[in-house]
Amino acid sequence: MEAASLAKKADGAVDRDVLLSIDDLHIWFELKRFGFGHAGYVKAVDGVTFDVLKGETIAVVGESGCGKSSLMKAILALHKPTKGSITFDGKKLSELDDKAMRQYHFEVGYVQQDPYGALPPFMSVQRILEEPLIVGGVKDKQERLDRVCKAMEEVKLTPVNDFLSKYPHMLSGGQQQRVVIARAMIMNPKFLVADEPVSMLDASVRVEILKLLRNLQEEHHLSVIYITHDLSTVSYFSERIFVMYAGNLVEKGSVRQILDNPYHPYTKALLTGTSEPDAKNAETYKELPPGEPPSLVNPPSGCHFHPRCPVAIKGLCEVTYPPEFEPEPGHLVSCWLYQDKDNVKR
To answer: Residue 287: its pLDDT value, please?
Structure first.
């Protein structure tokens, strides 16, 4: 990928045009008790900032319940921000009218986690892939068929005629996911959101699907957000990794920076359980830290990881949430262990 040859910016991105910009994003869901009114908020995303560049792939990793899916749904315009903004290709999503939002949905493809649940069981593969084209106003039947066949060839569902008339239950899990990917690509998007696209697949199929996604990304110069809880797959597919915990991004850096030299104790804990053979420092912890991810209704004060952290600084970590520090260029971490006035990123 071309990223390695380009100058890096302060947030770990490289000097390419920004396609997606997330600025201080908060996604809070109000809780209500019957008869008692307001009962607090679920702070699913609580102050997230990052950019995705044109043609770049990033991975957002973290345990279940850390806010990854809420972040993804906000990017897909399925959740409205409580605070902050999402800007796509220079336009804020909150300012788009219905016509512009419709166009935005054509420019952003979505690869779901569960391929069987994502595909309507009563529709053939041809009908599934034609549906976005019909909604998008492609009226000519032959043009729709040509585009369907091209998309199927790109995802290696060949011979095409063997699959056009099949229904989802007649396909293997890997073939179902290829249909999901073809549907996400059928409108020629600029941006792809892949929500744990291989977690429901057999191990033997995962690498094939990740290589397919990488080939599509390179061929179409797509920007991609790859959401996962598994650090062992990110090196196949991503340029940068963002580590998420309790609604916040706690570490950002290139794939090699995160795998070779993780800073945040939570990132090191994730690497303890990884099967990534090239990950250095994976044995930093002999075991995963005790406890469960915190409640997003009432997260711990200060650094949200401090109740599980074996190296927390008493009197500091439990009181004040750390800012982002930059111990090395392009590698950011929110952890008081790296407090240094010369390296703090305001």
So the answer is: 55
Looking at the domain assignment, is residue 236 inside a domain? yes
Provide φ and ψ at 136, rounded to 5°. -80, 0
Residue 15: the pLDDT is 47
pLDDT value for 8 = 43
Give the Cα separation of 34 and 305 in Å (integer): 32
State residue 168's pLDDT score: 95
Q: What is the pTM of this model?
A: 0.87
Q: Would you call 99 exposed, middle or buried from its count of C-beta atoms within 10 A (0-12, 13-18, 19+)?
A: exposed
Residue 263: both structure tokens together: 């800073």
Strand order in 191-195's β-sheet?
108-111, 191-195, 223-228, 57-61, 240-245, 248-254, 331-333, 324-328, 344-345
**pLDDT for residue 289:** 66
Which domain CATH number covers 309? Answer: 3.40.50.300
- Quick: pLDDT tens for 101-113: 999 999 999 999 8
CA-based nearest residue to 11, from 56, 66, 49: 49
10 lies in some domain: no
Is 6 inside any structural domain?
no
Does residue 328 contact residue 257 with C-beta atoms inside 8 Å? yes
Residue 206's pLDDT is what? 87
Q: What b-and-e string marks burial along 158-196, b requiring 16 or more CB atoms within 10 Å of the CB?
A: eebeebbeeebeebebbbbbbbbbbbbbbbebbbbbbbb
Q: How far apart are the first and last CA of the chain?
A: 30
Q: What does DSSP say about strands 240-245 and 57-61: parallel, antiparallel, or unpaired?
A: parallel
Q: Is 115 within a domain?
A: yes
Q: Which residues pair with 85 in a beta bridge?
A: 23
- Residue 35: per-residue pLDDT: 65
User: How many beta carbons lie within 10 A of that of residue 46, not counting itself?
Assistant: 22
Residue-range definition of the domain harbouring residue 24 = 16-345
- Name residues of the chain where pLDDT drops below 70: 1-16, 35, 273-290, 341-346
Domain tally for the chain? 1
